[in-house]
Amino acid sequence: MRQRGFRCRSVFRSDHTLGALLAVLLVAALAGCSAVTAPPHHQVEILVRASPVWPATARTEQLATAQKRFAECGIALTFVAAPSLSPLRELSFIESLEAVDGRAIEGRALTLVRPQRADIAWSTPAGTPLDHKQTAAHELGHLFGLGHAPVHSINLMAPHGCKFCRFSPGQCEILSANAPTGP
Ligand SMILES: [Zn+2]
Asked: What does the pLDDT look like over 113-122, one tens digit per residue?
């Protein structure tokens, strides 16, 4: 978790003596700064499209967990139906994806198209609902530069996902490097 720290931590950089540190702490206290978790400073807008086949509750859960996982890395995701600017990334809740090698596909990330797009399937082509494991967070992870973790690892970026995993600190670094920095 690289974003945790003092809200006003930048003032510490050039101070090395205890006296100076205390002075800085006093100034920080007077300025209303506190030792709280820094708010996310990467702001990212994601365009969301949704097929009516997706139940609203399932969609909301996917979006909420993705927001939570990215917020843990200091990145604030905003999901919009109509982007304010030309969108860089899009998340689509779709009906199904073609099976690959006889195996059902839950999601995919298309990183070479513009806007980049992540698709999440509700069911197999035969209509069997899929078991989503933070699929939106996983696929958005790909759009922000992450590859797959080893096949059987307990990791959000394992090929089959993970229901309760967070991004690792190293993965957070990569996500942050690929997210714009806000004010
Ligand atoms: Zn993947």
From this structure: 999 999 999 9
Distances (CA, A) of 107 to 23, 58, 122, 127, 177: 53, 15, 9, 15, 24
Give the model confidence (pLDDT) of 20-61 as tens digits: 444 444 444 444 444 455 556 898 999 999 999 999 999 999
Q: Domains of the chain: which residue ranges?
A: 1-38, 42-177
Distance 19 CA to ligand 1 centre (A): 51
Phi/psi for 45 (5° steps) reads -100, 130
Q: 42-177: CATH homologous superfamily?
A: Collagenase (Catalytic Domain) (3.40.390.10)
pTM of the full predicted structure?
A: 0.77
Centre of ligand 1 from the C-alpha of residue 11, in Å: 40
Three-class SS state of 138 = helix
For ligand 1, the distance from its centroid to the CA atom of residue 157, given in whole angstroms, is 6
pLDDT on residue 150: 95
Ligand 1 centre to CA of 81 (Å) is 24
User: How far apart are the CA of 86 and the centre of ligand 1, in A?
Assistant: 25
